[in-house]
Design brief:
By secondary structure, the chain is an all-alpha fold. The protein has four helices and no strands. It starts with 20 loop residues before the first helix and ends with a helix.
Length: 170
């Protein structure tokens, strides 16, 4: 009766080969990287030239992919290679796109954090400038000291003058 219970979804049945997607992805990337090298193109060209040369130049009894049949076996081998290479390259590109997307997201987060930090520091510097605007400078202090010194000298001169008058009049 459990299979007629519609309140819980059925689990998907997995049929076939089970594999580690990450390991397979790394494998496909290594194949795609190799297929995109000059070394692979040179080796593939050498094999094709040897294949065609062998099947054109040696006697018919030694040919394994006769020219009169149109090199069918070579065509089959190259078709198989292309049929496996294309999906592996696409898988490698998809994985690279995912890495690029994650990297872009991380770059965006870092840029946002950097912008926030920069704005905070700009506000702090502006605050420090405002506070420093009220702080007297050395020139301001010197000017005040000069005025105080002049005032003290005037007061001292008056006191001396008063004492001098008192001593004379007294």
């Amino acid at each position: 009766m459990k299979r007629f219970d519609l309140s819980t979804p059925r689990q998907a049945r997995r049929v076939g080969v089970h594999y580690d997607p990450d390991a397979f992805g790394q494998f496909s990337e290594s194949i795609a990287r190799y297929l995109g090298t000059a070394r692979f193109l040179v080796w593939q060209s050498a094999v094709i030239f040897a294949w065609v040369g062998w099947n054109y130049l040696v006697p018919a009894s030694w040919q394994f992919d006769a020219n009169k049949r149109g090199l069918v076996l070579l065509t089959l081998v190259l078709s198989l290679q292309a049929s496996y290479a294309a999906p592996l390259i696409l898988l490698a590109q998809n994985r690279q796109e995912e890495r690029d997307r994650l990297s872009a997201m991380n770059d965006r987060r870092v840029a946002e954090r950097t912008q926030a930090d920069t704005e905070f520091l700009a506000r702090e510097i502006a605050g420090v400038r405002l506070v420093l605007a009220d702080v007297p400078t050395t020139g301001d202090l010197q000017e005040h000291l000069d005025r105080l010194t002049a005032a003290i000298e005037q007061m001292t001169a008056r006191l001396d003058d008063l004492e001098h008058r008192r001593d004379k009049g007294g």
